[in-house]
Fold:
Amino acid sequence: MASLTKKEEVFGYMPGDTPPIGSMISLGFQQVLTMFPATVLVAILTKFDVGVTLLAGGLGTIVALLVSKRRIPMYYGSSFSYITVVITVMSQFVPDCFNDPTVVYCPEGVRLVQVGIIGTAVFEILIGLLIMRVGKAALDRVLPPVITGSVAIVIGIALAGAALNMAGAHWGVAFITLVATVLFSVYLQGRGLLGMLPILLGAVVGYVVAVPLGLVDFAVIGAAPWLRVPAITLPAFGDSRAWGAIISISLIAIATIPESTAHLYQMSLYIDQLAKELGRAPLKIKNLIGLNLVADGCDDLVVGMLGGCAGTNYGENNSLMAITRNYSVPVLMVAAGIAIVLGFVGKLAAVVNTLPVAVTGGLSIYLFGVIGMQGVALIQSEKVNLFEPRQLAVGAIILVTGIGGNLALADGVYPFFVPVLFPNGIPAIVFAALVGILLNLVFLALPPARFGVQERENINLD
Structure:
């Protein structure tokens, strides 16, 4: 940590920093609190076991951090990008279980989906190794900052509907939570540990407000067992139906690879800014794209083998790290350990699960918005020339097809049916990423300069 001289009055943790044990536990719990609602929600929607999802996500995070040699601070939780395709597979192969509203867990369907998640893991690892061999510049041509930044904006802003739906459970509690969180994040900066806990403090304020309104069901805690064994399942490699799910599920990586890349760029920007203020050398983790994708794949390999939901490095947790300026990998290790414990201890899981939906909604309005704004920051930091029509075209189309598709289309799915791959239509984020990538490839194959078009000069950002 920086010494308390006037020049270095900066509070924050770099990836290699290890806070005191008390700070690590509180900061780790805040990371868990941030990922918990979304991670559990995906499990509920897809009828996966919540305990396994927490266990696998925590273990997958630890494995990913170790694979990245503890250089890339990321927390892995359940990915929203896979929900549509997982529901499609479940509805097709285990309709009696999945369509029964009284059933909350479909092990047969989970085992089929696990094979597809492992397919995703292999795909991500191969792409990561390829990038590590050919270099970052090759990926930059296919996934330039205008694509990764725009996809990040889509990921954040397209979730606005989900955030507002949760907040709608009780608007008063949601807005009190939101305002408290924003005030804590702004006015507690530089106040030591308290300044690094705005999300946790905001959640506590919302929770306290919700109790007298009858929004907290303490009976859930009393009824929960102290210990529970997560329902770990093995992939159904021997089931012929599973192999048909591999392509459709693994192709969702088309959305998560740009998402992961955008997250890495965002984190690199904020970490290097903190390093500058602390008087340290920049880490430039944005150059570790290949290693980051290998780590992503290793996380999916873990959750796929255990029966957890398909994962991604969480933008919500990245937002939390950007807000609190805490990028400590040891803190993320502690958070992963807490998540693993929550998978086994019913009482602890029940306590966290009593967090009212409205409180989660208030937190999500802020966190999802920060994800979107980090995409804007990425485009700015990389000095993307938005005076150039081809850059404008790629970014504009991604934004409208991604955000508009998620908010306006039924279930956020484009009605373009591709047998086996997307039999029920193409998810909006996948569609937006595909269109952006393909349009960029057209411009690479047919550069405007070939037709005598002179690129417009960018604004002077120096």
Observations:
- The chain has one domain: 11-444.
- The first helix runs from residue 21 to 46.
- The two ends are 31 Å apart (CA to CA).
- Residues 1-8 have pLDDT under 50 and may be disordered.
